[in-house]
Amino acid sequence: QGSERLGRLDDDLRAPVLQVPHQGSAGSTPPALRAAVQPAEAVITVGPNHYGHPAPETVARLLAAGATLRRTDRDGMLTYRTAGRGWTVRAYGKR
């Protein structure tokens, strides 16, 4: 229901970076969300877990949509900075 409503919003929801919900679970990035945000980068906050997150299909969908994928379990803590045009990203504690 939430993704259906998202697809009907008139607001411009495009953003350069998407914080992927729910550790990148299989249902975390429905088509309406990806289409509305159109992220250049997608960040998955994830650590060791027994659920298999992020789901391989989520990773594949984000990459197929052209997003650069960053994961905290591989890249460490990430900070993004912007002055309104472009951004820089810094990784801390890269593994």
What does this structure look like?
- There is one protein chain.
- The chain is of the alpha/beta class.
- 26% of the residues lie in helices and 23% in strands.
- The protein has a three-stranded parallel β-sheet with strand order 1-2-3. A two-stranded antiparallel ribbon has the order 4-5.
- The radius of gyration is 14 Å and the shape is flat.
> How large is the count of helical segments?
4
- Per DSSP E runs of 2 or more residues, the count of β-strands stands at 5
Amino-to-carboxy terminus distance: 37 Å
Order of helical and strand elements: HEHEHEHEE
Helix content: 25-40%
Order of strands, widest sheet:
1-2-3
Helix-strand makeup class: alpha/beta
Residue-averaged pLDDT: 88
Rounded Rg? 14 Å
The low-confidence runs, each spanning 5 or more residues with pLDDT under 50, are none
The biggest sheet amounts to: 3 strands, parallel
Shape assignment = flat
